[in-house]
Design brief:
Strand content: 35-45%
Shape: globular
Number of helices: 2
Distance between the termini: 22 Å
Number of strands: 8
Length: 136
């Protein structure tokens, strides 16, 4: 039986600082605007992260991030992890886990999976993992 789910579509975040958030995701990371709706101070947009996956952003001037947030993190795939880390540092964002190599010891029949990752805090308190590997 095939899965009813065909893959990741989007992660949604809220922001109080629209301009800073777009500078981070569009300027630093290269996401492209797909669709927008509503107007300031209540804007919303969907940005293509690449390969048809999206980040949806809602502007909410009253938004206060909860500690740890409801989403543990979201991971963005990259083939250029260290270059992305340099761009993130240039925005002034906090890198919470520096770029490092990790091997995932699997618990199924798949052999261990080597990956390279780093984490940062996004402009609205979101936890973002950057994930580089060739096997998943």
């Amino acid at each position: 039986m095939s899965s009813l789910i065909t893959g990741f579509h989007h992660v949604c975040i809220k922001t109080r600082d629209w301009d800073r958030t777009l500078a981070f995701y569009v300027t630093a990371l290269g996401f492209t605007e797909k669709i927008t709706w509503r107007t300031a101070p209540n804007r919303a947009a969907m940005f293509d992260t690449g390969d048809g996956n999206y980040l949806e952003i809602f502007e909410d001037l009253a938004y206060t991030p909860s500690p740890g947030g409801a989403v543990l993190h979201f991971a963005l795939r990259t083939a250029h992890l260290d270059e992305v880390a340099a761009r993130i540092r240039a925005t002034g964002a906090i890198i919470t886990i520096a770029p490092k190599d990790v091997t995932l010891a699997t618990t199924n029949a798949h052999p261990p999976v080597p990956i390279r990752i780093f984490f940062c805090e996004g402009p609205s308190g979101e936890n973002i993992e950057f994930f580089q590997n060739e096997l998943t």
